[in-house]
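Lab notebook: predicted structure, single chain.

Context: the supervisor wants predicted structures on file for every construct in the current expression panel, including those that have not yet been purified. This is the next one on the list. No modifications to the sequence; it matches the entry in the shared construct table.
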Amino acid sequence: MQPTLRDLEEIVDSGILFAAIDYMATGEGRSVWLYIDSYYGQEEKELLLKNFANDVSPYYGHLVEDLTEEEFFNRYDNLVPATVKTYISKMPIVYFRQEIHING
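Prediction complete. Output recorded below exactly as produced.
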């Protein structure tokens, strides 16, 4: 079966999503949610971002940022395990989520 034009467009518009929610408030500390996932097509990327925001919380969800790989690692490199960083460059499908809460 030959791929359709839509199939080919989705393959071209695929990649790895790098998203974060970073919240800090006096007396509440800091909460960081990190999310890395593979996507195929812009619609799937938008759905992944929406689901990530809803999974975290409607209260914090509006703070979700869709970052480039460079922006993501400039901000959160020290929070992502080395193994995950290694697989991002080697595997076509990647999934990583992490929550960190620091009360201070």
